[in-house]
Amino acid sequence: MAAYAARHAATFGRFMVMPNVVPPPVDGRGVADYARAVEKAVAASGYASAVLPSFKLVPGMGADAVRSCAAAGAVAGKYYPAGATTNAADGVADPADVAAELAAMEEAGLVLSVHGEDPAAPSFDREERFLPVLDGIVAKHPRLRVVLEHLSTAAAVDAVRAWPSRVAATITAHHLSFTVDDLLGERLDPHLFCKPVLKGARDREALVRAAVSGDPRFFFGSDSAPHPRAAKEGGRAPAGMYSSPVAMSLLAAAFEEAGDLGRLEAFCSEYGARFYGLPRNGGRLRLWKEPWTVPAELDGCVPPAAGRVLGWRAERIG
């Protein structure tokens, strides 16, 4: 945790910690303990970076547990469909199973953060197949703010645009930068395996258009998920990319290629803060054009674009 938190804090002045850890934070004490552990790691890094706690939405946890999570400082609860991703076996099989918890989140003003995939569907169809489920949640909870995390398809972009303004979405640097051909085209690259899985060029182009559109419902989320190299290169590679060390370089390249570099700051630093009702960060990040080679390994993990030359560098200057 110390290395991963330091690497993230070196670029980002604020980040939300996801709750699919073991054991998961599902009550106020769990949220507080997890936040303290991450804050301790950030403090040791020498960087100032605010930690935004979240909790895992688990069937049976109850409305009182949700309220205790809010009292402990959680700003969001994360909905993982059961079995959809890493450590999600205890997730939600049916929204009806967490109806009381969702109502409590709505009452407390918490954001529902959603990993939007149907694990019963074929891998490339999972995000699109989950959209009707989320549509039902949005309809049944008219005051609930929702973030559909890490979009990967044009269908999800269209769905977000059709929902009311209290529904937003994050887009990752890796979904803006890579396609399934980078994952599978020449040879399998397990370090580019994530969920939702990378899609084709048409979907990537739709994500880029949404990211550079200036629509405040689309904003950056790193979804940085480090896994040790040995685990990634073992027999059953876990899903997740260690994207935080290269995210800003990839984003700058994607926005520059789209001809909208001037909209990068709002995508990264304004829209998400506004949606969550948070003040904008006071620090500054310097981006400049300079070729650099991404290391083959960082903190025991292989980052996206390892060994490749990227054209932008990033550095916190305050």
Write the layout of secondary structure elements.
Layout: H1 2-9, E1 14-16, H2 28-45, E2 50-52, E3 54-56, H3 63-71, E4 76-79, H4 99-108, E5 111-114, H5 126-140, E6 145-148, H6 154-162, E7 167-171, H7 173-177, H8 180-184, H9 201-211, E8 218-220, H10 229-232, H11 247-258, H12 264-276, E9 285-293, E10 309-316
Parallel strand pairs: 1-2, 3-4, 4-5, 5-6, 6-7, 7-8
Antiparallel strand pairs: 9-10
Describe this structure in words.
The protein is an alpha/beta fold. Helix content is 37%, strand content 14%. The chain has 12 helices and 10 strands. It has a 6-stranded parallel sheet, sandwiched between helices. Strands 1-2 form a two-stranded parallel ribbon. Strands 9-10 form a two-stranded antiparallel sheet. The chain is globular and about 50 Å long. The two termini are 23 Å apart. 46% of the residues are buried. The mean pLDDT is 97.
**Count of individual beta strands:** 10
Distance between the terminal alpha carbons, to the nearest Å?
23 Å
**What is the percentage of strand-forming residues?**
5-15%
User: What's the overall average pLDDT, rounded?
Assistant: 97
Estimated structural class: alpha/beta
Number of helices: 12
Listing every helix as H and every strand as E from the N terminus to the C terminus, the arrangement reads HEHEEHEHEHEHEHHHEHHHEE
Describe the strand arrangement of the main beta sheet, using strand numbers. 3-4-5-6-7-8
Biggest sheet descriptor? 6 strands, parallel
Radius of gyration, taken over Cα atoms and rounded to an integer in Å: 18 Å
* Helical proportion, percent range: 25-40%
List low-confidence stretches: none
